[in-house]
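Dear Dr. K.,

Following up on our conversation at the group meeting, I've run the structure prediction for Selenide, water dikinase from Paratractidigestivibacter faecalis. I'm pasting the input sequence below exactly as I used it, so you can double-check it against your construct before we proceed with anything downstream. Let me know if the numbering doesn't match what you have in your notebook.
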Amino acid sequence: MTGVRLTELVEAAGCAAKIAPGALAKVLGDLPRTEDPNLLVGFDASDDACVYDLGDGRGLVQTCDFFPPMVDDPFLFGQVAAANALSDVYAMGGEPKLALNLLCFPNCLGIEVAGQILAGGADRCQLAGCVVAGGHSINDHEPKYGLSVTGFVQLDGLLANVGAKVGDALVLTKALGTGVITTAYKGGLLDEAGVRVATDSMIRLNDTVGRVGGDIVRHACTDVTGFSLMGHSCEMAEASGVTLQIDADAVPMLDGAREMARMGMLPAGAYRNRDFFGPRVQMGPDVPLDLADVLFDPQTSGGLLLSVDASQADLLVSRLRDEGLPAAVIGQVAERGQKSVEVR
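The predicted structure tokens came back this morning:
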């Protein structure tokens, strides 16, 4: 094992390393469209994964996600990266079944570090019941790790950004703040114990809704990752033709997240998110700046944002809390207004 810290080798960490959403939107907008009637979900509505109709009532769910480390422990980094990649399948209502490792690794680190990263990923995949069947690795000056994941979904239970209905309640399953907490850790303001509140959340699989909420009427779902709660809420609202109204005080926050935001510990991705999604969000005048900053904070392996039948929202939240998740009803779905998201 070398004495080099993983986080010292990267400019950006976790999902905060994503390409700016505005630049990505332009690139995707210029790509040619390939028509296939069996492709049920592509990238048009900014969904978490693609879904291909297998013709027997099932859909194949395919996703790919990897990023640089946000922690120094290589096993923990592998756990977080794998949980984050698996989440895309859960967000579509599916179950992950097969994964391929994607590893970029610098020569300055001992090969045993690579082994620990892969072991961390294998740990989360095993917990998910997902088989790791191989992968690909290359030399790179920055370490990066993630998975290409294949899963399956019953098409009558398929979830996507499209589908949020006026009158639905909005449920968020995990607390926000992983970006500001890990930025503070990278900057030396927090130690291993201080960052644990974020890592404990990030390694948690997003399979809980599927296990305890099968009888809950769910109309739309996305996982909250690099584009922040505000960004992913905009995508759901625009895909569904509605406005999401969010009660800022109801949004669960990681301990210390707002304090770190007040200290300016914001990842660069938070500013990019605000620049791109901010004009589509009506931020109430009474929402404190530090709270608004966390709402735009890029999350790594964040929770699920669900649009569910309002009469069943409290039941879902109760079940999720029984499983140890800080879930909450954070708002509702309204008729389309001037903005995609209204924060009050």
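Two things stood out to me. The chain has two domains: 6-157, 169-343. The chain is about 35% helix and 25% strand.

Best regards,
J.T.
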